[in-house]
Amino acid sequence: MAFSLLNAVNDRAGTLIRFPNHLAITSGDGVNGVWVGAVNHLVTGDLKIWAQVADVQSIRVPGYWTHKKGSSIKICSAPQPDEKVVYHLHGGAYIRLSAHPSDLTAPVATGFLDVVDPVTRVFAVEYRLTCGKPFKPAHPFPTQLLDALAGYNYLVNVVKIAPENIIVVGDSAGGNLAHALVLYLTEYQGTTDVPLPAPPGALVLVSPWVDVGMSHESLPNGSANKLASSDYVATPDGVIPYAKNAFTGPHGMGAAETNPYISPASMHPGLVVDFKKFPRTFIVVGGVEILYDAIKTYKDRMVADLGEGNGVKPNEGKVRYIEAPDAIHDYLAFPWHEPERTDTLKEINEWVKQG
Cβ(77)–Cβ(97) under 8 Å? Predict the structure, then answer.
């Protein structure tokens, strides 16, 4: 979300030449790419309806493994004793960036490998990016949720990682997607003939984009306006409206106000979102980011359903919240953003070890 609309469009147009995308595994030094199979057999309920409206379906997409330095674990190998595996969903407003280890958001994954002791490897899926007018529309919601579901199914049913040992991590738009994936896995678990994998053992949301609509942006004294001068995502060139329209596509911007898979923090009175079946969750927010208010709304709603705490003792709340007062949006993606980045990762390390 930090870049100009022109750059986003140029990236989209030049993807086949310069940027990793869903059409191929992009090789490189130490890059461990695999193909992830389609999961149309796992699509049901509202997700099936939304996919039909958008005329999209699950397809084969790439994924990338990154291992802790010095690790002897082979690619796609069976789980190790006491191992936690991170499933990372990258940010980029759904219109740019990549799961590839060379991407700008890769430090989120490497941060977990460097600091979070039980995590020895990270898997990231190369979900399809969306595109909207004035260009040929492609891959609107719920395309990315279909791809995220495929990556999660790959971990559980191909690599055989136990769901309770998977930590789903999403930053920015990836946080939006991580929320949607967990909501789907919890909402339809055991309710249909679709053999959904069990939900993950933990969820980490880093500066999640949880209100794609306008309800928080319209607050006169809200963070979207008050902090626009301190956060790099507050671009004046139209990239955010472009991303919103491209992502919602045929569902329309109304879906960004009332659909809990798209905007779980929306303040629209018609929105209903239920977190009661969610796993223990760690939420990270920067104190000077424009998404601050929306993330606080999301956190408060989750705490109302799950309670605040580390979620490891009987009757203990499941929501852990960290606010770095001087941090910008998605600060875990910036190795120079110290000491906030390392301090937060250390907090996450203790939280993971407790679980």
Answer: no
